[in-house]
Each structure stands twice: as C-alpha cells, then as structure tokens.
Input
Amino acid sequence: MKSFVIGMLVGVLLFSGGIYYYFASGMAPAAAGDPPMFMERKMASRSLGAHIDKANVPAPPIQPSEDNYVAAAKTYKNQCAGCHGLPDQPAPAISDKMFPDATLLFKDKGVSDDPPQESYWKIQNGIRLTGMPAFKSILNDTQVWQLALLVANMDKIPASAKAVLAPEPGPAAAALAAPLAAPKAPAAKK
Ligand code: HEC
Output
C-alpha cells in the first residue's frame, strides 16, 4: 500500500513536471502560425460550450426586422468586417493570420447553424486566447442582438442590408464617378 502511494506521488510529480517542462522549454506553440497543441481545439471548444450553456442566454428580445438587419450591417461593417469579411468579397488579409482563424461569417454557412444566443454570448464576451474581442463595453445590448441575428441569418438578409455590406468603391472608381468633386491638389510650397 505504502509503495503504491509513493508510486502514485512520483507519477503525479513526473507528469506535472513534464507539462511544466513542455511550456517552460518553449516546446508548446506560441506563434499564431504554429500547429495546434494536442487536443487544443477540442478542449477549447468544450470549455467555451460549457460556459455558454451555463450562461443560459434568453431568446432574442428583438425581431429579425429589416431595420434591425440594416442597423446590424452598419455595425458589422465598422467593427467586424476587418476580421470576418463581407459577402462575396475576398477574405480580409488578416483573417487567416491568427490562431484560430477568424471565421468568414458570410462564407458557406458561416455561423448560420449556431443559435443567435450562442453568437450573442461570443460577441458580448469575446473568446479567450483567440483574436475575438469582447464587445460588451463597446456596443449596447440591442446592437449585439442585432449582430447575433444578422450572422445567424446571413443567408436570409434583405437587399437593403446587403447593400450596406457592399464594399465602398475604391478611390479610382470614386474619382471616375465624381471628377468635379475630387479635392484640389495642395498649392505647391514657394
Ligand atoms: C480582431 C479580429 C476580430 C474582430 C474585430 C471580430 N472578431 Fe469575431 N472572431 C475572431 C476570431 C479569431 C474568432 C475565433 C474563431 C474560432 O474560434 O475558431 C471569432 C469568433 C467569432 C464568432 C464565432 C465564430 C465561430 O466559428 O463559432 C462570431 C459569431 C463572431 N466572432 C462575431 C463577431 C462580430 C459580430 C464582430 C463585430 C462586432 C467580431 N466578431 C469582431 C476575430 C475577430
């Protein structure tokens, strides 16, 4: 019995020492481009899922109306598109340069198979150890719900909201469209 207990203790010490060594010696991944650790994705998504389940987010307090979609599209374009991309546009350059990648929310199914409550929680609280920021002190509760409905229904939004999400015309197109409005070149310094 005594040697069993000693054996267990030595085992536990070796195991924790090994884990400490894995991190302290720099074997654990640290760069965004490093391959994931053993079970990293699985453990992270378990923990996130458990948190969201516990939070018991209520049903959306607002309707998926045209006004809400248009408002959401404006917020999305300002706050989210730089990482999560726009409909029918190439992915933003940084979206796959972080670990994990920022999901392209208007590509394929995006997160349209997640309930809006789940996306609401993620937008409010952010996702630890990812590039996903917490927006609860930046956006108000209605704005977060509007965004949660937008991403959940990305395949059903009205044309008015789609128009808001269209990219701004580049400087060349803008100059062609309004040649007279082009700013004058500053006067040369004397
Ligand atoms: C700086 C980049 C960045 C910004 C800005 C950002 N996100 Fe994210 N977001 C991420 C990353 C990275 C993830 C994590 C993806 C993962 O877990 O695989 C993420 C995850 C998400 C998810 C869950 C995606 C999934 O696959 O489950 C949603 C929904 C989301 N973000 C919505 C938003 C919204 C809405 C905004 C704007 C208010 C926003 N994000 C702003 C980087 C960003």
